[in-house]
Every structure is written in structure tokens, then in C-alpha cells.
From TrEMBL:
Residue intervals of the 2Fe-2S ferredoxin-type domain: 252-340
Highest classification ranks of the organism: Bacteria, Bacillati, Actinomycetota, Actinomycetes, Mycobacteriales
Keyword Oxidoreductase: yes
Organism in which the protein naturally occurs: Mycobacterium deserti
Protein name per UniProt: Ferredoxin--NADP reductase
One Pfam family it belongs to: NAD_binding_1
Length: 340
């Protein structure tokens, strides 16, 4: 097979089509070179890490596929965001024919291989990976699907027409409930409880703004759904809690094993293990940097650290010492971490 990526793992993907979804959201259909098509096959719910240069800065951001693997096109959908340098640049300047460098698909926010119902909650641009999951479940299985989709206003609903079409084509299997904050206020636990009432064995997928996700997750778990049935995909990270920041201030050094090298690095208070590795000159693996994909996982063999967010590792992995280094702040004087 011919080489598809440069040394940094990114390949140029040409923008084949630009679709304006709403006034502040755009879908980009990407053309994958034939010689690297195998590397860019993906599972529903996964994302691409893009590398772009904006105002002279080399930036990397992750965007979920809104297309489904059963479809011919590879498509990501990007919503404008206040202060979102890359998201706004993609919305404002990208046109057909432009090349965007992307790393191969990653992520664990994927459908489980069961026949159980899919219950999905999306808020705003959180519909992007959810759309991929819905399209795949409807095309590849006989699973029933229900979607609760929350937006601030009616004109901000991404994929409104596509969802209406899917609901008509799959009237016996797909239920779509729209929640508009302007009409009904923010989503409440009771609204979540009413929506999931009557669901039997099901898997729950949640993506959207942090407060929305917290409300939905708490309500779903409160209803008795086992935690292993609840799947989360976050697009942003929360501020570091004060107690965690204070604990990290006591750390002096981090020992890092990567690529058959062992480096001892001085620690700068507030930095994650991943940031410390980078400052030490190591090319530590990473992608989403929100605790969702698992790309940056490593094992702590001595010392301790606390993860700010973990939507990728299961309890057994955590018990064995695995952490997401992008989300981990040290809590002991020294920490020894190994990338395996």
C-alpha cells in the first residue's frame, strides 16, 4: 500500500462539497485519496482530528463525522462557536477544492453490537456524532431508535430536514422529539424522565453542552439505567477544580517512559501529564484532549493522578493504573507514567 500520511500521521483530504446546514453550521464532505482509503474507514460516532493553520498558528481540533459508514461520503459538521478559532475559520473561509489535513478516525463513542434500543440525547452541535449513530443503526439493524434533540431556537436546528425525512422513512422504528429552549426553557430532569419512560433494554448516547449532558446523564442514571449503558461524548473540558489544582502544586517531577526513552521532567503546577510530556520534548500521542477518545492513555506505575474527565476508560482499566494523560493532574510528589 502506498504511504498515505506524513510523519505526523495527517493526510490531505480535499473538500468535495460544502453544505450550509444553518446560519452558523456547515457540513464539509471530504474526498479521501484512494491510496489511503483503508485508513480512513470509520465507525459511526468517531471523529477526525484536523490540522489547520490560522493566522500563522498551527492548530488541531477534533470534529465528529455526521455521515454514516454505510454512505459513500465522509462528512464532518462544524458549528460556529464564540472564540472558536478553527470552527469559525471552517465556517467562514473553507470552500470546495481546499485541502484540509486530517488524522485517521478515532473515538469510542460507538454503537454496541446488540439488538437493543438506541436512546440518544443531543444538544446543539452534539447532534453530529448522534446523526452518524442514528443513520447506522437504521441502515444496519432492526433496532428501534429514539432521539431527544435540544436547541436554543428553531432556526438553530441542524439536520432538521434530514431528521424529518428519516422519521418518515422509518416511522415504525424512529422517534424524534425536538426541545426548543425558547419555547420550553432549558431541559429538565423530568423532561428526560418522560422521554425515556417505557424504554426497555437500551443503550443511551449523550452529546452536547456540558450542563445539558450533566442533566441528562444524572436523570438517566437516576431512572435505574446501569452506568455501562450510558455513553458520553464531550466537545469541551471543564475548569480544573480548586482542590485538584492545589494537590498538583505539591508535585516536583514526572518520570515518563515513551518510545523506549525514559525522561525525568520538572513539573509546572496546573499542567496535565500530557502537557508535561510535551514540554519535555516528547511526542506523546493525543487527539481529542477532552477525555473521550483514549488516544493519550498511559499507565501510572508509581505515584498518583486524578482525571478531570474520563469518558474512555472502563473501571477495570482505571483499577490497573491506566489514565487519560490529557485529563490527568498529578497528586503526589513524583509520578512515573508509562506509554505502552
Amino acid at each position: 500500500m502506498a504511504e498515505s500520511n506524513g510523519d505526523d500521521g495527517f493526510a490531505p483530504l480535499r473538500v468535495k462539497r460544502v453544505v450550509r446546514e444553518t446560519s452558523d453550521a456547515v457540513s464539509l464532505v471530504l474526498d479521501v485519496p484512494a491510496h489511503c482509503s483503508a485508513q480512513y474507514r470509520y465507525r459511526a460516532g468517531q471523529f477526525l482530528t484536523l490540522r489547520v493553520t490560522v493566522d500563522g498558528q498551527d492548530l488541531r481540533r477534533c470534529y465528529s463525522m455526521s455521515s454514516a459508514p454505510v454512505e459513500d461520503d465522509l462528512q464532518i459538521t462544524v458549528k460556529r462557536d464564540p472564540g472558536g478559532v478553527v470552527s469559525n475559520w471552517l465556517n467562514d473561509t473553507v470552500s470546495e477544492g481546499v485541502e484540509i489535513h486530517a488524522a485517521p478516525p478515532e473515538g469510542r463513542f460507538c454503537l454496541r453490537d446488540t439488538d437493543d434500543e438506541v436512546v440518544a440525547f443531543a444538544g446543539g452541535s452534539g447532534i453530529t456524532p448522534i446523526m452518524s449513530l442514528l443513520r447506522t443503526a437504521l441502515a444496519n439493524s432492526s433496532r428501534r431508535v429514539r432521539l431527544f434533540y435540544a436547541n436554543r431556537s428553531r432556526d438553530s436546528v441542524i439536520f432538521a430536514a434530514a431528521l424529518e425525512r428519516l422519521a418518515k422513512e422509518n416511522a415504525d422504528r424512529l422517534t424524534v422529539a425536538h426541545h426548543i429552549d425558547d419555547d420550553s426553557g432549558v431541559v429538565t430532569p423530568s423532561a428526560v424522565g418522560s422521554f425515556i419512560s417505557g424504554a426497555g433494554a437500551a443503550d443511551y448516547y449523550i452529546c452536547g453542552p456540558g450542563p445539558f449532558m450533566d442533566t441528562v446523564e444524572a436523570a438517566v442514571l437516576e431512572s435505574g439505567v446501569p452506568r455501562e449503558r450510558v455513553h458520553l461524548e464531550r466537545f469541551s473540558i471543564e475548569p480544573v477544580p480548586a482542590d485538584v489544582a492545589d494537590a498538583s502544586g505539591q508535585t516536583e517531577e514526572i518520570v515518563i517512559e515513551l518510545d523506549r526513552k525514559t525522561v525525568t521532567a520538572g513539573y509546572r503546577a496546573g499542567n496535565t501529564l500530557l502537557q508535561t510530556a510535551r514540554i519535555a520534548g516528547l511526542r506523546a500521542p493525543s487527539s481529542c484532549e477532552t477525555g473521550s477518545c483514549g488516544t493519550c492513555m498511559a499507565r501510572i506505575v508509581s505515584g498518583g493522578a486524578r482525571m478531570l474527565n474520563n469518558d474512555a476508560l472502563d473501571d477495570d482499566e482505571v483499577a490497573e493504573g491506566w489514565v487519560l494523560t490529557c485529563q490527568s493532574l498529578p497528586t503526589t510528589r513524583t509520578v512515573h507514567v508509562v506509554y505502552e
